[in-house]
What does this fold into?
Amino acid sequence: MSLHLFVLSPSDTPIYSLTHHSTKPVTNVPSPLASNLPAWSTSAFAGTLTALSGASSVPHHTTGGTVRMGGGQDRHVIQMIANASLDVVEDVMRKENTMYLKSVDKFNEWTISAFITPGNTKFVLLHESKNDDGIKSFFMDVWELYVKTMLNPFHTAHTIIRSGVFDARVRQSAKKYL
Amino acid sequence: MAYSQPHPRLSVLSNSSLSSVEHLSPTTSSRYSIPSAPSINTALGTNKQALSRPNIYDRNLNKPRVTDVSGAAFSFLFSEIVQYTQKRVSGINDLERRLNTLGYRIGTRVLELMVWRAESSSKTPKREIRLLPSLMSIHTQVWRAVFGKPADAIEKSVENADEYMIIDNDPSIERHISVPKDMSQLSCSSFTAGIVEAVLDGLGFPARVTAHNTPTAQFPTRTTILIKLEKSVLEREELLKQ
It folds into this structure.
């Protein structure tokens, strides 16, 4: 199971992203979309839909074949889902005064959780299983690391975070909580 | 091969002796064999460069026990900032705008750090989403974080619904500044205005913030920070009221 984290600047440009492959056991949620489609389906949309459904539970066809649908693990699909969730996030963050917005959006198997820092930087996390406390602890860690990054006088809210230490610390935290 | 013992500079500066040992772990030690490698790495901006120096990620964000910055040192620094800026501008407006920009850079950091210190230990960290509580927190929390005391007053403009004023009777950054007569318009608190603007921006209340001298007999350096909110902010407040 993989998770995707995006850190977005106040103007919604991505300044950091991470794909984490969790080793924690998952309670597999059967993919409603994939199970609705017969395996022999030859519909023109079948491939796209499978790709969009985006779950790792969908069988992959990527190994060596010419068909490359990637079960939604494709980068652009992930990015699109994350992007689409911003609308909902922005709606909710005007009304809710908590920083951690759990499960604000769903797209098939993907659940989107977000964290808004006081300076309006957004952390968006795409995940498949429910793990509220872990995600919250993870977000808190990323927030601390982000604040430290911000304190660097050469960093502005719109600078892409390239620090290797930041990356290592986020990965460490992801391994611990996700 | 790694140095047999931690580099003296590291052991002094890094937070714990443990972390300086970490820096010399086998995974990163290979580059020590080439003396020039670290500087090349730094120039290229590779990921490993930061490991040889104590870095911000190792430090604790909570307040150290001694929190106050020396007033004399700050006054000196700020006077240099003003002089430096003044040499590069053509008028008072320009100078104020530049000071504002410098303050803005402080404000974005103050906001994140201040809220982190207040909220990171709470179970459900909160953000301000309403205007008035935000203004109040600027008046007290931000002022306390930056100047060590809350501002003296906060007022709402009678004529314009979109204007608020934060008043400081004796702004500490201006304590050692006397503005020449021919520049009487200038308020060095534009720097503070920049901080306020950044905080409001970060919280999602875009505004134009300026500083004005409003001396009284009792407080000759009394300064008003004028906040002029954007229209969208007021419209949103109206909607949230319902």
In short: The CA atoms of residues 1 and 211 of chain B lie 58 Å apart. The interface with chain A takes residues 45-51, 55-57, 59, 61, 105, 108-109, 111-113, 115-116, 119-120, 124-129, 201-204, 236, 240 of chain B (CB under 8 Å). The longest strand of chain B covers residues 207-213.
